[in-house]
Design a protein that fits this description.
CATH topology of chain A: Rossmann fold
Helix content of chain A: 40-55%
Largest sheet of chain A: 5 strands, parallel
CATH superfamily of chain A: Response regulator
Number of helices of chain B: 34
CATH architecture of chain A: 3-Layer(aba) Sandwich
Modified residues (4-aspartylphosphate) (chain A): 53
Strand content of chain B: under 5%
Oligomer: heterodimer
Keywords (chain A): DNA-binding, Phosphoprotein, Transcription, Transcription regulation, Two-component regulatory system
Number of domains of chain A: 1
Distance between the termini of chain B: 131 Å
Strand order of the largest sheet of chain B: 2-4-5-7-6
Mean pLDDT of chain B: 76
Largest interface: A-B, 25 and 26 residues
Low-confidence stretches of chain B: 150-159, 368-374, 536-547, 846-850
Helix content of chain B: 55-70%
Distance between the termini of chain A: 10 Å
Structural class of chain B: mainly alpha
Number of strands of chain B: 8
InterPro entries (chain A): Bact_response_regulator (IPR050595), CheY-like_superfamily (IPR011006), Sig_transdc_resp-reg_receiver (IPR001789)
Strand content of chain A: 15-25%
CATH class of chain A: Alpha Beta
Strand order of the largest sheet of chain A: 2-1-3-4-5
GO molecular function (chain A): DNA binding
Low-confidence stretches of chain A: none
Largest sheet of chain B: 5 strands, mixed
Shape of chain B: elongated
Domain Response regulatory (chain A): 4-120
Radius of gyration of chain B: 53 Å
CATH class of the largest domain in chain B: Mainly Alpha
């Protein structure tokens, strides 16, 4: 059974980099690049892990996170949040919104892999 | 003539003696040994200035002319001192508690410190007293001439005005020297009072000596004298009851109202308790003074040739008997009477004139009181000295011009009647709280006018009022005849004048008071005056010193707090060496306490409070006004505080606004930093990720390797561009930008911009529409900067125009003072909500697709501002439309 991961990110090059790294690690990577219908994408796709950027066109990652956490189906969904705004306040906001893990850009690839693996351990 | 010379010598010696007496008294007073000076006997004797030369000489003359009528002159004051003791005591108490300086001051203080009233009374006093002073000068001159004249002739038609002048100058000098040594009316004129007391003794001794000589020396004993009196026509003269009563009333009124009596009775009063002695001693003195009047008159009539001036019998009887020594003594008695009267009258009048007329005028001329402080004492003293000289000289002039012809007693009574006009206002003021300033003014005016009309002017003789007017009234109006007003005929002129002036005066005073409303200050003063005994406990009601100190303690505790008050009192008690915690209420202690209290409640209040408890001094109106002033200051202070608090709240609001602005700025700064962080971290993330992939992954194919490397390259370029933009914007916003101003065709600048934008573009889908003929305009500006703006706009259109066939129209409009360059694409345009923010830093229209940092338009706006033009969004053009405005100075029509 392949494990599916949904990457919600608007930067083309970052999408390509993360997709490359995760695919090589055996993940099926789906991508989505705007915030407006990101939550809908999660509902329809039901991925094993979500990687969510904060600054998305249309809607902020925090909003999407809060909406998903409000639904029982996604209360425990592992969500890794990425942000380019490296301030402490941003981390607090993410944590209060119910994030599973949080990473500041730029990150090292191994860090990213470790985080994703920790969120969805191999059964 | 040797007698006259000797007389002058005696006179000068006597004056010198008076100087010595006054001087010694002043010295003793200055040394603090005033117990002796403040004895009740001295006080009583000083009251004897009631007996002037008029009574000394004139009583005998009056007896000769009118029989026992002269007694009424003595009965009036005696009745006042004995029967109206309570009135006098009240006056003295008020005088002390209010620090009254003169009768004018008393009246003015009672009626709300009205200077109008003070001036009125002063003028009345000057008018009434000036003839009186003239009278004294005349009597001195006459008595001088008695010695120089042929006694057989006995007529003194040509008075020597030179003598009068010298006497006047001497008296003025004496008065100036001893009357203006100190300023405070409450500080007594010890020298003057002592000299007057001595003079009182001299005149009494002189008159008694003459009397004794007449009774025992000439008549041969009391029995013989009485027989002689019975035999003379004097005994048979019928005394008109009405006139007798009138004169008694008049002299009683005058005793209370005459400025000089008021001066010694009230102002110079050292101790209220002296009144007790004076109340019997003074009538006794008057009785002694009048004792031998009738014998002298009878003997004089017997001995001297018919037609001799009876006013000088006191002098001429001894002289005719060759008793020169006695005559000189008698002369000194008369001289004493005259001088003491002039001196005290001059002091009293000068105080009034300087306080109520000269000083107010001076203050007004020099611009008010606030700035006056140090030298005012000097000014007041000078004013007072000049006033003394002025008053005495006025008397002299009156004497010189009137010729001194009128009978002495007549002038005296006229003056009495004039001053008596103050009586209703004064008595009403101290006994009736309803009395008002208006009433007092009305009464005084009416009384003064009637006095002038019915008594004073007729008394001046036919030269002043035409005989026809006296007989038939003014303009033939009989009911207005000065001596038979309203048809009341047949009365004695004096009685007539007293009746009308006093009754109408009192009536006007009453009606005026009832019809008018007192001012608050009048009300206050009225209560102070009428209830003076409640307000100021007299010396007898002092409950003892310890009780007072305890009261002070209670008050001090209320104000200073228990601990501090106790500490203060204990400290003071220790300093005094007293046992226990309560110090003696010495002046030093009271002063210190007052200062302590003043620190808490203000000086005036502290003074008033201590005054209330210590007693003997009521709260003066100055004190109360000062309290009021303090309250006014407090109110002003609180108003200021209120203004300040308004100011403060405004400042606070401004601060709040500023803080809000700062917060907003700070939020903006945070947002800006956050944005920069985001813009920097995003390309870095790609760079790091791909460089790690390149480093760590050995199994990459060449295409992948190439692709990743070029992504890293592109992101590095993007980073560089971002940093360039940031620096550019920062310089444009804050730094000095050096502009490279040159002239060029607008079309060339647009060409450059389009070419540059095309060069950076990945695809050439954007169609650019231009009208080159419109672009044929020369502009003078920084061409590179303008091109930068154009490039930005073209690039934006290329990046963001989402039309299927994107097109950009560049339109040039040349106006008289500017050139407009519009960039209009055929996309969806920018929504109204975003239009306001597109020129802000990092502002990007939602759902943008290109990776711009959002600084482009911000930079454009800064550039255009620097170039003196503008860039704005142009709504209603179909697509996104920007208008660049190149200002007048930069644009020139191409020729």
């Amino acid at each position: 059974m392949t494990r599916e991961i949904l990457l919600i990110e608007d930067e083309r090059n970052i999408i390509e980099a993360i997709s490359f790294i995760l695919s090589r690690d055996g993940w099926t990577v789906r991508t989505h690049s705007n915030g407006t219908d990101a939550a809908e994408k999660v509902r329809s796709l039901r991925p094993d892990v979500v990687i969510l950027d904060v600054m998305l066109p249309g809607r902020s990652g925090y909003d999407i996170l809060r909406e998903l956490r409000g639904e029982p189906a996604f209360a425990d969904l592992p969500i890794l949040m990425l942000t380019a705004r490296g301030q402490a306040r941003d981390r607090e906001m993410a944590e209060s919104a119910g994030v599973s893990a949080y990473m500041t850009k730029p990150f090292s690839n191994s860090e990213m892999l470790d985080a994703v693996r920790a969120l969805a351990p191999v059964p | 003539m040797t007698t006259l010379n000797a007389l002058v010598a005696v006179c000068l010696s006597y004056v010198f003696f008076l100087f010595v007496v006054a001087f010694v008294a002043e010295r003793r007073a200055a040394a603090g040994r005033i117990r002796w000076l403040r004895s009740p006997i001295v006080y009583t004797l000083s009251l004897s200035i009631y007996c002037t030369a008029w009574t000394f000489y004139g009583a005998v003359g009056s007896a000769v002319r009118n029989g026992l009528e002269y007694v009424a002159i003595y009965v009036g004051p005696s009745l006042v001192m004995l029967g109206w003791f309570w009135v006098v005591r009240k006056l003295v108490r008020i005088g002390r508690s209010q620090r009254v300086t003169s009768i004018a001051d008393l009246v003015s203080a009672r009626y709300g410190k009205s200077n109008t009233l003070a001036v009125f009374v002063t003028i009345l006093a000057v008018a009434g007293v000036t003839p009186y002073i003239a009278l004294q000068l005349q009597s001195v001159t006459l008595s001088f001439e008695v010695f120089g004249a042929d006694l057989a002739g006995g007529r003194f038609d040509r008075p020597h005005t030179a003598t009068a002048l010298w006497v006047a100058v001497g008296l003025a000098l004496f008065t100036v020297i001893f009357g203006t040594r100190n300023l405070d009316a409450n500080e007594r004129h010890h020298g003057v009072v002592m000299a007057i007391a001595v003079e009182a003794v001299v005149k009494l001794v002189a008159l008694l000596s003459v009397g004794v000589f007449v009774v025992w020396g000439l008549s041969g004993g009391v029995t013989e004298t009485l027989a002689r009196i019975d035999a003379s026509e004097l005994g048979t003269w019928n005394v008109a009851g009405g006139r007798w009563a009138g004169i008694t009333f008049l002299s009683a009124a005058a005793f209370l109202c005459l400025p000089r009596i008021f001066q010694v009775l009230v102002v110079e009063a050292a101790d209220e308790s002296h009144l007790r002695t004076a109340s019997w001693a003074f009538p006794a003195y008057l009785m002694l003074m009048s004792l031998f009047v009738v014998p002298i008159a009878v003997v004089g009539l017997d001995l001297l040739p018919a037609g001799s001036n009876p006013d000088l019998f006191v002098l001429t009887v001894p002289l005719s008997q060759g008793q020169e020594g006695l005559a000189v003594l008698s002369f000194l008695g008369g001289f004493s009477s005259a001088t003491s009267m002039v001196i005290v009258a001059a002091i009293a009048l000068s105080t009034m004139v300087s306080n109520h007329i000269v000083m107010p005028i001076w203050l007004r001329l020099t611009g008010g009181g606030a700035s006056v402080s140090g030298d005012v004492r000097h000014i007041v003293l000078t004013a007072r000295r000049l006033s003394i000289a002025g008053v005495v000289m006025l008397g002299y002039l009156y004497y010189a011009f009137s010729g001194g012809g009128a009978a002495l007693a007549t002038i005296g009574l006229v003056a009495f009647a004039g001053m008596a006009q103050v009586l209703p206002a004064m008595l009403g003021g101290i006994f009736w709280r309803g009395a008002t300033r208006t009433g007092a003014l009305a009464g005084l005016s009416v009384g003064f006018a009637l006095w002038l009309y019915t008594l004073f002017l007729p008394s001046l003789g036919p030269g002043v009022l035409p005989v026809a007017m006296l007989d038939e009234g003014p303009l033939g109006l009989a009911f207005l005849r000065p001596q038979a007003l309203f048809g009341i005929d047949g009365l004695d002129p004096l009685l007539h004048a007293i009746f009308w002036s006093m009754s109408l005066n009192a009536g006007a005073f009453f009606v005026g008071s009832v019809l008018s409303f007192p001012t608050p200050l009048e009300r206050l003063q009225g209560a102070q005056f009428v209830n003076v005994f409640q307000h100021s406990p007299g010396p007898r009601s002092w409950a003892g010193r310890v009780a007072q100190t305890e009261d002070l303690m209670v008050m001090a505790q209320r104000i200073l707090g228990a601990t501090e008050a106790m500490a203060l009192f204990r400290r003071e008690a220790r300093a005094q060496g007293a046992r226990g915690d309560l110090p003696e209420p010495t002046p030093q202690f009271l002063e210190r306490l007052e200062r302590e209290l003043a620190g808490s409640v203000g000086a005036a209040t502290a003074h008033a409070m201590i005054g209330q408890i210590v007693g003997g001094m009521s709260v003066s109106v100055e004190d109360l006004m000062a309290v009021a002033d303090e309250s006014a200051q407090l109110m002003e202070y609180s108003a200021r505080l209120e203004a300040q608090s308004t100011e403060l709240s405004r400042t606070a609001r401004q601060l709040r606004d500023a803080n809000l602005k700062l917060t907003r700025l700070s939020v903006q700064k945070d947002a800006f930093l956050s944005q920069i962080s985001h813009e920097l971290r995003t390309p870095m993330t790609s760079i790091r990720a791909f460089s790690e992939i390149l480093r760590d992954s050995g199994r990459l194919d060449a295409g992948e390797r190439m692709r990743f490397a070029s992504i890293i390259h592109d992101e590095a370029v993007r980073l560089t561009r971002l940093l360039d933009d940031l620096l550019d914007l920062s310089v444009l916003e804050n730094g000095k930008v050096s502009l490279d101003i040159r002239a060029a065709r607008l079309s060339e600048v647009i060409d450059r911009a389009v070419a540059a934008a095309d060069a950076g573009a990945e695809d050439g889908a954007l169609t650019i529409r231009r009208d080159r003929s419109d672009e044929d305009v020369t502009i003078v500006t920084d061409l590179d900067r303008l091109a930068q703006v154009f490039i930005n706009l073209v690039s934006n259109a290329r990046k963001y125009c989402e039309a299927s066939a994107p097109a950009l129209t560049i339109r040039v409009l040349t106006e008289s003072d500017r050139v407009l360059v519009d960039f209009i694409d055929n996309g969806e345009g920018i929504g109204p909500e975003a239009r306001d923010t597109i020129f802000e830093k990092f502002s990007r229209v939602a759902e943008q697709k290109a990776g711009g940092a959002g600084l482009g338009l911000a930079i454009c706006r800064q550039i255009m501002a620097r170039l003196g033009g503008d860039i704005s969004y142009l709504p209603g053009q179909g697509g996104a439309a920007f208008r660049v405005e190149i200002a007048e100075a930069s644009a020139m029509a191409a020729q």
